[in-house]
Sequence to fold (342 residues):
Amino acid sequence: MSKILRCAIAAGLCALSGAATAGLTTAGTWTGTVGLSVDGIGSNNTPVGDVQASIPIGATILQAFLYSAGTPTASNYPLSPRTLADYNSAGITLAGTAITNFDTLVGGVSPRSDIVSWATGRADVTSLVRSLTAGAATSSFSWTVGEGAARNAGIDGEVLAIVYSAPGLAQGSVALLNGGQNTGGETSFVNLGSPLSDPTAAGFSAQLGLGISFSCCDSQRSTVRANGGLVTDNAGNNDDGLVVADGSLITVGGLGDTPANNQSYANDHELYNLAPFLHTGDTSFSIFTENASGDDNIFFASLYLTGDITTITPGVPEPETYAMMLGGLALLGAAARRRQRR
Fold:
């Protein structure tokens, strides 16, 4: 096989590999008497606003992440952070503490030239949240979030996700997921360590929460399916943003939201009940997301399940996406062979 042909095939395989891992990826899973607190805030104010947390008295904080969702990376959004260095120098604060340890970029991809992609920053704030909650005599917390003036209008807002354990909670699993999915549609698979119990039984819970940025105004909405069934086609809006403007377009399913499926756009708050789509004995289930308008960024997801979540197999592009990539790979190979014969 010629060097040119080998390079063509390698390039194609890299494209396939990259596309196949662009979607939901596991940021961590926890099983036991565990619970979850998620909230978000966005604005162009200084400070941005307050993010809430609900944690049982005496609970142990297992993990806390702060996600900061920038506006698109296209050249017409010059204030948007694009790198970890951008986030670490953006003046982001939580409860007055500067957050300068962003270490993960979550990237979303759009086919639109006026969008291109998004770069969401994620920081581990476990130690900070532990210190803020240590010895507290309350389960409700409110902490101020800030963004530096130079980047404020280029960051749609922040999401604080906290995983904890506490005696007396039901046995279950929590998964935190980095989003950054292809707006053209991807399917991810949630894998379980043991067969699922009866989803119709009392006490069973299966909740999916999504964090979405750069979304508003009714026409910008995403579709979510679980095991092929329609969960919602109204995901999106700026429910956690204080104004309708770039730099405040954010929503996340979490505190204060009631799990509901296929609501109207105004009444869909990105927290969903997956139990109707699950079956006794399931050892995995699928989650599909798609944003037809190509301008919403699903950058985060959370799962709580009365079951044993082990891993998430990240986003698999829809069949037509694979077909296009495979067709391109075939053309690359044919072109390489033609060049070899000359």
